[in-house]
């Protein structure tokens, strides 16, 4: 079998060598073989280059990875170094906030206690003020004030005697009232031509003081030594201010016929009319009542 095959090959070779196109085919085959070798050599060279490039890329990637890792570690260390003080500061702030919250709660409790204490003290002050005002009013119970008497009129005599004679003459009294004290107000002596200081007079008997005020109220005008004078009760400043708030209402009541009015201590306005008797503590309420029921009916 093998002998027959070799014989066929040799015969084929001989036939090829003997034919004219066989030589061209051989050259073509050689060229193809050479080209194949060249291609394979280039492929091998490319494989080597690719492998070298890949190795270089791997090395670069590894270098970049190491650099990135180093930079990341550096940033982490830097951030850690910067964050540590911040964390300590935050912890300190939390402690301070907690301390402030506790202090605020304590202060809130103290403020509540202070407000309660202030309310108690305010009530006490109001009570003491009312008592002081009442005591001052009682102390002035027998006093009056005389306005308009010229300065120095009492010089050379005892003031109580001069004032007692003044009241007797001005009011037409049968006898001079009994006075305990009489003196000028505590202001400095006014310049010549200025308003004289008021005379403050204390009666020995309360009924005589009431009689003087009644006589003064009945007279339209009081004059002494050519000067117009006024006689008022000597009231505490707070009471006088509260009574002064009724001034506008009293001016309205003066023009109402058949209406009587007067001030009750300390500062209450009593109005008597055909509608009955009313007592007011509030000037606004008194004015509204007067305008609504008394002024329009006259």
How would you characterize the overall build of this protein?
It is built from seven helices and eight strands. By secondary structure, it is an alpha+beta fold. The chain folds into three domains: about 40-130; about 140-235, L1 transposable element, RRM domain (Alpha-Beta Plaits, 2-Layer Sandwich); about 235-298, L1 transposable element, C-terminal domain (Rec A Protein, domain 2). Strands 2-3-1-5-4 form a five-stranded antiparallel beta sheet, covered by helices on one side. A three-stranded antiparallel beta sheet has the order 6-7-8, with helices on one face. A hairpin with a 2-residue loop joins strand 7 and strand 8 (about 275-280). Helix 6 (about 245-255) runs parallel beside helix 7 (about 285-295). The protein is rod-shaped. Residues about 1-10 and about 10-20 have low confidence and may be disordered. Keywords: Coiled coil.
Quick description:
By secondary structure, the chain is of the alpha+beta class. It has helices at residues 2-18, 21-139, 159-171, 206-218, 237-244, 247-254, 283-295, and strands spanning 143-147, 179-184, 199-203, 222-224, 227-233, 260-264, 268-273, 276-280. It contains seven helices and eight strands.
């Amino acid at each position: 079998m093998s002998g027959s095959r070799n014989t066929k090959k040799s015969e084929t070779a001989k036939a090829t060598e003997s034919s004219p196109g066989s030589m061209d085919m051989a050259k073509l085959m050689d060229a193809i073989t050479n080209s194949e070798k060249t291609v394979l050599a280039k492929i091998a060279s490319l494989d080597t280059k690719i492998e070298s490039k890949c190795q270089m890329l791997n090395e670069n990637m590894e270098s970049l990875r190491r650099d990135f890792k180093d930079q990341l570690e550096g940033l982490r260390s830097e951030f850690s170094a910067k964050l540590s003080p911040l964390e300590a500061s935050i912890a300190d702030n939390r402690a301070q906030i907690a301390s402030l919250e506790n202090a605020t709660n304590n202060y809130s409790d103290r403020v509540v206690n202070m407000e309660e204490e202030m309310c108690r003290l305010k009530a006490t002050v109001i009570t003491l003020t009312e008592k002081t005002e009442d005591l001052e009013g009682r102390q002035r119970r027998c006093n009056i004030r005389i306005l308009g008497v010229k300065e120095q009129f009492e010089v050379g005599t005892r003031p109580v005697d001069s004032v007692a004679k003044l009241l007797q003459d001005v009011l037409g009294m049968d006898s001079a009232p009994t006075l305990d004290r009489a003196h000028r107000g505590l202001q400095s002596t006014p310049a010549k031509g200025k308003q004289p200081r008021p005379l403050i007079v204390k009666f020995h008997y309360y009924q005589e003081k009431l009689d003087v005020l009644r006589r003064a109220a009945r007279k339209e005008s009081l004059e002494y030594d050519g000067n117009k004078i006024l006689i008022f009760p000597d009231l505490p400043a707070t009471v006088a201010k509260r009574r002064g708030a009724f001034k506008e209402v009293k001016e309205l009541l003066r023009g109402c016929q058949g209406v009587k009015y007067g001030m009750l201590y300390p500062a209450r306005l009593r109005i008597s009319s055909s509608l009955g008797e009313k007592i007011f503590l509030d000037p606004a309420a008194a004015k509204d009542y007067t305008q609504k029921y008394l002024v329009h009916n006259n």
